[in-house]
Design a protein that fits this description.
5 helices; 19% strand; five-stranded parallel β-sheet; alpha/beta; 5 strands
């Protein structure tokens, strides 16, 4: 397993999440724009963590979470949503999400959620 897969249908959100994580020292190994693309990349990459947008045109994040968690139960999942409702958080947890964070994306809340799941980022040693 290696790295983080960022899944969001909006390029600006995908890039922002990936940039925040990369700048903090985490390894982002893939970015997917749809559920179908995410499933393909997920099986190729075997990531440690997947950040999932909740609302996407082809497949919602909860369905995607269930599919991925069903095939790889050891992978961690972080649901990203602009919907602030207790029922969404409860459903995400019951579906297997390790955490949920709300949009608009806050660097500190994203990094806090990721570090709680993965721990501190691994810093590359210079040779």
């Amino acid at each position: 397993m290696s790295g983080i897969l960022v899944v969001d249908d909006k390029p600006a959100h995908r890039d922002q999440i990936a940039e925040i994580l990369t700048n903090a020292g985490y390894l982002v190994t893939g970015k997917a724009s749809s559920g179908a693309e995410a499933i393909t990349m997920f099986h190729q990459m075997e990531p440690d963590l997947v950040t999932l947008d909740l609302i996407m045109p082809d497949m919602n994040g909860m369905d995607l979470l269930r599919i991925m968690k069903g095939t790889s139960p050891m992978v961690s999942f972080l649901i990203c949503t602009s919907i602030c409702h207790e029922m969404i958080a409860d459903l995400a947890k019951r579906s297997g999400a390790d955490a949920l964070f709300h949009k608009p994306i806050s660097n500190s809340s994203l990094l806090a959620a990721v570090s709680k799941i993965l721990g501190a980022p691994h810093q590359e040693k210079e040779s």
